[in-house]
Write a structure and sequence with these properties.
The protein has 261 residues and is an alpha/beta fold. It contains 9 helices and 12 strands. The strands form 3 sheets. Strands 6-7-8-3-9-10 form a 6-stranded mixed sheet, with helices on both faces. It has a 4-stranded antiparallel sheet with strand order 2-1-4-5, covered by helices on one side. α4 runs antiparallel to α5. The N and C termini lie far apart (49 Å).
């Protein structure tokens, strides 16, 4: 089945009386990688939590393909949308394989039990993130980067046609960052990804939404969005935007040692 588009329509999220996301509209094209970037506390993670149903929006709706996400059963939504959130569950006492196997629960019957298809999906997912050799280790024994790769494997094993990834490159070394981002591009699933690394966003995303103060302040292709003026106004940094010599994508050179803005 083809990947559906995701439409975020006028979504507002109010938590403890404070508006965290303010009437936000986002279109994630079918089979595209859509980046959500912005300063800390800008509402990126809250917006993603609405897509994978960890939070209910105060107003607005999420439409995936032709279906309103709010009208889907939990099982149907879990088969469609797979997520790597920032918050962690209670995986620490489980083995690596058991953590990845959790992604198959939406595909199993009332009485559970793994099918051959489940076993293949789990093995394939572990191989994709280069963690097959660690299948019998406990999750708690892993490094931060290894844990992140296991959570990505769980997401891949789940088999959703929409991926929602909140800072998935956190703790990953350069090699595994490149491996993951290249994999996301090649899979051609509809992917909504929050990233702090703006150069990674420029390289992998088809479209980027810049969020500040809970609202989208700019959107477009990476070439349109990543300008020196926007980097200064939204992120408070001085930078020069160049063209990557190999890919032609924007390459942001930050001035770490220059005078304050």
């Amino acid at each position: 089945m083809t990947a559906p588009r995701v439409v975020i329509e006028n979504v507002t999220v109010v938590l403890s009386g404070r508006e965290i996301v303010c009437g936000t509209d986002v279109l994630a094209g079918a089979g595209e990688v859509t980046g959500i970037v912005g300063p800390n506390g800008s509402g990126k993670s809250t917006l993603l939590r609405v897509i994978y149903r960890h939070l209910k929006p105060t107003a607005g709706r999420i439409v995936i393909g032709d279906d309103d996400l709010a009208h889907m059963s939990a099982t149907a939504a879990a088969r469609l949308v797979a997520a790597v959130p920032q918050e962690r569950g209670s995986e620490f006492d489980s083995t690596v394989r058991d953590v990845v196997a959790l992604g198959r629960i939406p595909h199993q019957g009332r009485f559970g039990g793994e099918s051959e298809a489940d076993e293949r999906a789990i093995a394939d997912a572990l191989a994709q993130v280069d963690m097959s050799r660690c299948h019998d280790r406990t999750f708690a024994s892993l490094s931060g980067g290894e844990r992140q790769r296991v959570l990505l494997a769980r997401c891949f094993a789940q088999g959703g046609r929409v991926l929602v990834l909140d800072e998935p490159t956190n703790h990953l070394d350069v090699s595994h960052q490149a491996q993951l981002l290249g994999m996301l591009k090649r899979r051609r699933l509809t992917t909504v990804i929050a990233l702090h690394d703006l150069n990674a966003a420029a390289e992998v995303c088809d479209r980027v939404y810049v969020v500040c103060g809970g609202a989208v302040v700019q959107s477009g292709t990476p070439e349109d969005v990543f300008t020196e003026s926007l980097l200064s106004e939204v992120f408070g940094v001085r930078a020069t935007v160049l063209q990557h010599p190999r890919t032609g994508k924007p390459l942001i050179a930050f001035d770490y040692l220059g005078d304050e803005l």
